[in-house]
């Protein structure tokens, strides 16, 4: 009797999932109340598999968003979808698996990249500088936890990087932050190197937006003097020509 009830429950869940999944995506969206700052345009396909021409959030636009929902994940009580988005050099683009289970949100084999110029425009931050290079986020595995993560294995990189300012131009070269999780806090081990300067250190984001940064910056003689003379505002140069950086606060 028990096995029959389990089989009946499995069939019911599977059939319900099939009915929901075959709904046209446009029809499914008509039952969803989106936030006022989110718009989804030109939707095609079904809940299982489909695409949207453009998704906008707070004036940030992502083109060619495609999704493919995992049926097996739904049958095990999780929502998991493979997504691809973006096109062209001057846009946000990426792909990977995103999901949600009883343990919270998770991601695996996920990448997202954009030019630093695109990211600055999208942030609407009034920065007095111009940037160059490509920024890429790679997440091999991430599991949501308290306050931020239960597990995290990823990397944030900035390649061919440079900053142009009124004080002069700074060659960043390559900068990499290896991401991990420490008792729920996000930890970034940072390493940057160019002919003009080198930086290494670590940053941590904890609960309630509390952050800390500890790093060592070493300028070279190739760094423009107009920039180097202003390094005194971040710390005092030691006998090795290093500047120790220690910041803490809340975001």
Note the gap between the termini: 57 Å
Number of distinct beta strands: 13
- Our count of domains comes out at 1
Oligomeric grouping of the chains:
single chain
Spatial order of strands in the largest sheet: 1-2-3-4-5-6-7-8-9-10-11-12-13
Helix content: 10-25%
Q: Strand fraction band?
A: over 45%
Instruction: Give the rounded overall mean pLDDT.
Output: 85
Q: How are helices and strands ordered from N to C?
A: HHEEEHEEEHEEEEEEHE
Give the overall form. Answer: globular
Major beta-sheet overview = 13 strands, antiparallel
Alpha plus pi helix count: 5
Poorly predicted residue ranges: 1-21
Rg computed from alpha carbons, rounded to a whole number of angstroms: 23 Å
What structural category arises from helix and sheet content?
Answer: alpha+beta
Describe this structure in words.
This protein has one domain. The radius of gyration is 23 Å and the shape is globular. With 251 residues, it is of the alpha+beta class. The protein has a 13-stranded antiparallel beta sheet. The protein has helices spanning 2-21, 25-30, 71-75, 116-123, 225-228, and strands at 38-45, 49-57, 60-69, 79-85, 93-101, 104-115, 130-144, 149-165, 168-182, 185-193, 197-205, 210-219, 243-250. A hairpin with a 3-residue loop joins strand 1 and strand 2.
Quick structural gist:
The protein is an alpha+beta fold and 251 residues long.
Chart the SSEs and their pairings.
Blueprint (H helix, E strand, L loop, with lengths): L1 H20 L3 H6 L7 E8 L3 E9 L2 E10 L1 H5 L3 E7 L7 E9 L2 E12 H8 L6 E15 L4 E17 L2 E15 L2 E9 L3 E9 L4 E10 L5 H4 L14 E8 L1
Antiparallel strand pairs: 1-2, 2-3, 3-4, 4-5, 5-6, 6-7, 7-8, 8-9, 9-10, 10-11, 11-12, 12-13
């Amino acid at each position: 009797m028990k096995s029959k009830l389990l089989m009946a429950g499995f069939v019911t869940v599977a059939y319900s999932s099939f009915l929901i999944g075959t709904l046209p995506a446009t029809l499914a969206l008509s039952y969803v109340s989106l936030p006022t700052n989110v718009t989804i345009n030109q939707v095609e396909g079904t809940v299982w598999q489909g695409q949207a021409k453009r998704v906008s959030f707070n004036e940030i636009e992502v083109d060619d968003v495609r999704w493919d929902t995992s049926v097996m994940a739904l049958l095990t009580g999780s929502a998991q979808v493979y997504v691809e988005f973006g096109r062209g050099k001057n846009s946000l683009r990426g792909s990977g698996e995103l999901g949600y289970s009883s343990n919270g949100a998770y991601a695996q084999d996920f990448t997202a990249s954009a030019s630093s110029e695109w990211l600055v425009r999208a942030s609407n931050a009034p920065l007095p500088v111009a940037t160059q290079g490509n920024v890429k986020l790679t997440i091999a595995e991430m599991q949501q936890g308290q306050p931020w993560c239960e597990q995290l294995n990823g990397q944030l990189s900035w390649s061919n990087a440079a900053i142009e300012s009124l004080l002069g131009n700074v060659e960043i070269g390559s900068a990499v932050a290896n991401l991990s999780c420490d008792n729920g806090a996000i930890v970034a081990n940072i390493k940057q190197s160019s002919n003009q300067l080198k930086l290494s250190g670590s940053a941590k984001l904890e609960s309630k937006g509390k952050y800390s940064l500890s790093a060592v910056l070493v300028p070279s003689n190739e760094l423009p003097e107009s920039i180097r003379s202003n390094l005194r505002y971040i710390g005092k140069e030691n006998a090795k020509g290093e500047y120790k950086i220690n910041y803490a606060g809340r975001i």
